[in-house]
Design a protein that fits this description.
Radius of gyration: 17 Å
CATH architecture: 3-Layer(aba) Sandwich
Mean pLDDT: 96
Number of helices: 11
Low-confidence stretches: none
Shape: globular
CATH class: Alpha Beta
Helix content: 40-55%
Distance between the termini: 33 Å
Strand content: 15-25%
């Protein structure tokens, strides 16, 4: 893993695959780190892509600047990292918070994209102010561990938690190790987000994926995005919750790589 001082912070990132290949850039959810893409990297590299993963500010091994953050700031981080690495264009894939960054890129910076994949995300969150306040106050009072069980229940089905016990334990670790500043900073970005009109500007080829059991960003949220983006296709993956890329990795990878390869035609 490597680190770069960009956009007045330090971002942690990882590059895998051939240096001269098209780059697939993967962006994480709230309270996760770049390890959440462990099942995507080998098949993407095998398919001939270079893979760029990074930790959002305040997450993983990236630095936590003072909260609050905005979605514009997090999008600027992604663009600055691309500039730092000399990447003119990428295939961008974001999940949850990463998908919100992806929507911003598609709506306002589509010249930097080869394609766009939006996973388990929304253009507007219906979580109430009271619910956000309850979660952040619990983390402030009792630590990030106080959020872990409820988050994991939203991120994985019960069957997935049993089948992927080791992976779930690693995801729990990423939740607990997320800095409070990173949590509250990114929560502020999500709370103030409303991309319902902006996403209609997206004209690049876009794949939308969501799990049938996703409670936080349900199928209806992806259907809304699909309706607004004329160039989009929607894949609903059965028996998967929020981290569908881990819970149903084979199905996710097959659909994702097929989409990437079609954008070359």
């Amino acid at each position: 893993m490597m680190q770069a001082e960009i956009n007045k912070t330090v971002l942690n990132y990882q590059l895998d695959g051939p240096s001269k290949a098209d780059t697939v850039m993967l962006s994480n959810s709230l309270m996760s780190d770049l390890g959440m893409w462990k099942y995507q990297v080998p098949p993407l590299v095998e398919a001939g892509y270079r893979v760029l993963r990074y930790d959002n500010r305040g997450h993983g091994k990236s630095a936590a600047s003072p909260a609050p953050y905005t979605l514009e700031l997090l999008t600027a981080d992604a663009l600055a990292l691309m500039d730092h690495l000399g990447l003119e264009k990428v295939h961008f894939c974001g999940l949850s918070l990463g998908g919100m960054v992806g929507q911003m890129l598609g709506a306002f910076h589509d010249g930097r994209l080869l394609s766009l994949t939006l996973c388990a995300t929304a253009s507007f969150m219906t979580i109430t102010e009271a619910e956000w306040d309850e979660r952040t106050q619990a983390a402030r009072t009792y630590g990030m561990d106080a959020l872990a069980d409820a988050v994991l229940d939203r991120w994985f089905t019960k069957a997935g938690q049993q089948r992927l016990a080791q992976d779930v334990a690693q995801v729990r670790k990423s939740i607990v190790e997320t800095s409070f500043e990173g949590l509250t900073g990114c929560v502020a970005a999500i709370r103030s987000m409303d991309l319902r009109e902006a996403i209609s500007r997206i004209s690049i080829e876009t794949l939308i994926m969501v799990g049938t059991e996703d409670e936080g960003t349900p199928v209806s949220a992806s259907e809304f995005i699909h309706e607004r983006i004329a160039t989009s296709s929607l894949t609903v993956i059965p028996d998967a919750a929020h981290l569908l890329n881990m819970e149903r990795s084979e199905m996710f990878n097959e659909r994702f790589i097929s989409f990437l390869q079609k954008t070359k035609l």
